[in-house]
Predict the 3D structure of the following.
Amino acid sequence: MTGAPSDTQNTLREGIIELTFGEPDPALLALGLVRRAAVAVLDDAGPAALAYGSLAGPRTLREEIARRIAAREGRACTAAEVLVSAGNSQALGQVLTVLTAPGDVVLVESPTYNLALGIMRDHPVTVVGIPLDEEGLRLGALRAVLAESRTAGKRARLLYTIPTFHNPSGVCLSAERRRDLLAIAAEHDLVVVEDDVYRELVYEGQAPSSLWTLGGDAPVVRLGSFSKTLAPGLRVGWINASAGLLERLAAAGVLESGGCVSQFAASIVGRLLAAGDYDHHVAKLRRTYASRRDALSAALRQHLPAGCGFAVPAGGFFIWLTLPPGLLATELLPTAEAHGVAFAPGARFCSDGDDRSLRLAFSLYDEAALSESARRLGAAVTAALAGRA
Ligand SMILES: Cc1ncc(COP(=O)(O)O)c(C=O)c1O
């Protein structure tokens, strides 16, 4: 990893290979493309480039996103079905503000994206976790929780899910479960919030169809973002939803006051997409991250002791590693750091605190560093097991 500016969210420590952070490698951010697009926006639009934007966001960006969706995902889409956001974190906050009432139950996968749990904590809702397996969200468990909530007189209003290249587990919801989930949502009047942040980072074949694409008029809110492909610092993403839901989200007071939440950056992204450079850039990211994933997987197989288990993800940034019985990730972390490698313990992602697994992000380092990180991790797990014997 090279060229990190000093004001970034996460600081890397000297001597430790940090597999903790699920962020793009700064060396792969679209610096030249963004620079060119920003100059073009300012030169062409003049002061209008810096004015308040319309509530829905710059038309060029919405048209470009709609065009990409129609071409790549096979769902006819117009600019009217796209609401520009400041990325999925902001969009999730807006969805919770607009669509939940105090006391509502919000369902999440367990494990789930830990920082989404932080966004939920900002709202007076009760968060309930539903377990995952290798095909994604377990729908039997979802049905049971929906029935329990109803019996308790509580309203399960939203399900927040990451069905494609899940963070942290890397799994994809199977095609059959995607269809069944949409049926359950319709039956229970449950809004499905689909966090689709890793869709473009697919390393084998095609990413599975999104719930929103499959769902027609179903109550699905799909959140898309340019954070993982162009640059997280741009803070640009978008929301797709049925007309009724999109209208409610667009009526948020924060948009009425400030207009589009990321107007200038969104204009830059619109320009960049219209210039036709995006696909080439994303193709390079796919090759690079796939090679990093392969390097880490191969080295983990070589260096981890028996009893560890993981699946190779078909996309995204993460390998979810299960530890040998009796070893907890939070307890392992200091030993791992002493060996020069860090990770995110599973308890951070699990609503029930389950700590038998850990998340390894392979996005930030090159193949040689990732191989070395697996060697260090293997040594740390072996030492921790020996310490327990
Ligand atoms: C599942 C998931 N959602 C959202 C985000 C943040 O997205 P954004 O930068 O668009 O707010 C991340 C980043 O790690 C993520 O993994």
Observations:
- The first helix runs from residue 31 to 45.
